[in-house]
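Loading example: each entry is read as two labelled lines plus one structure line.
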Amino acid sequence: MSSLSCVTVIGTGLIGTSVALALRDRGVEVRLADHSPDAVRQAAELGAGVPLTDQDQPADLVVIAVPPLYVAEVLYNAQRRELGACYTDVASVKAPVIAAAERRGCDFAAFVPSHPMAGSERKGPATARADLFAGHAWALCPTSATSAAAVEVVTSAARLTGAVTYELDAEAHDRAAAVISHLPHLVSSVLAGRLAGVDPATLRLAGRGLLDVTRVAAGDVRLWTDILTHNAKPVAELVDSLADDLKVVSEELRQVAANGGASADGLAAVLSKGNAGRERLLTSRPAS
Amino acid sequence: MSSLSCVTVIGTGLIGTSVALALRDRGVEVRLADHSPDAVRQAAELGAGVPLTDQDQPADLVVIAVPPLYVAEVLYNAQRRELGACYTDVASVKAPVIAAAERRGCDFAAFVPSHPMAGSERKGPATARADLFAGHAWALCPTSATSAAAVEVVTSAARLTGAVTYELDAEAHDRAAAVISHLPHLVSSVLAGRLAGVDPATLRLAGRGLLDVTRVAAGDVRLWTDILTHNAKPVAELVDSLADDLKVVSEELRQVAANGGASADGLAAVLSKGNAGRERLLTSRPAS
């Protein structure tokens, strides 16, 4: 493992501040930057590190924790200012971010595109947690130009937060993210969106199930519009396909209603497949 | 509040055993019955009460915690054996259960159909928790024949578990349950079902979001087939409508993909509506 003594985090929202807190807990020196001085101050007050200054020496690693749309620009400027020996980002989409960084002329030898697969529906430094990444996956998507040394440094940092690292290429990451993150987010949003018109006397009856299914629907609209925009085509196909699955289910339900409850085998098959998929998810994850 | 000194629970699965544990914690004497002697023994060992015997005096209340399909038969037999002064059930659908109990010739003066709006994807007495209902709604659906005294007893019992009681008619309950419970369950199942064919290398990347959205998909297939069968028509309409909403979203995504990310306003509107619905849910619930 590479030794890591100093990290600069640019973007002190939920993810950036959580990375900073986790690294501070492991004795790493952390410097903080954000376009909002308030966000830096808040993160620093939480013990996430100290504000970055122009006099600081280059860090071992710069973590760019800004929305996908801004990664290329922030990375370019950080490299121009020589803020660190290597760089990573944490955006939920990788191929479009890499393409934008290429267009911007970033140095790829020192850049390891990455994505910690943990988050929250909340935002801002005050919602950060040092254990946000513990037991969760952290995807690393080095390009053919990325140096082995940079991969080693980012791997070290990710593992220090308690995450389990996996290397895969950016396209594979984006296809996976569509299935495991972007589709569920939209499904949760659309389901929650229906509740906007439901009377409170009905909603007050809701139990844990609805709370869990709709939790991520509270996510930041601008961030998620940005993420989904950058992975729109594969997500569109998945959403379409899920809608088709639901049409099959509504047909099953109509048949059950029409025949007075006899032959609900189709319905049971849908639920059994749900059991199987959930089980496969639990057994596949590192934390399970 | 009516005084409650002795309750009999028939059906010592997750819900029945949790009711028993909650009432035991409040000093109520609890007797347990189930078609499975093992389930009764397990519940008793957990401190949920003692097995019901033929020599027992009638209880103040009999809680029938069996799947919807069996409520009428179990209620009829319990009333014939004079097991209690009044009766309630906990099934997730109310109008069909009431209709079945009417057909079976049950005594409605002593019967308060009810539904505690809390549960878990797990089953069996070992998964029970005394605090399962704390802060959650418990719907009471008395019929025109139900006595005020019976309503008072069931209200007392529900409140002793920490639940917040609401009275509404059975049809209103079933419409509400379709929106807040049955639709989300199916959405979670269908989404989880898609994961059954996804490779573990993809699933191991999944974070908390997917775990939460698919949690209820692990629910018992027979129980949920039973529940959905009894509310099939309203749920079919909601599933259809949600599928239509998703088709609109996939169209938005295709447009965003086609125009290179410009004018993602439609997508942002979907996410904003999700924010609003989630907020409305949180502010409507008693526990929030």
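The mean pLDDT of chain B is 95.
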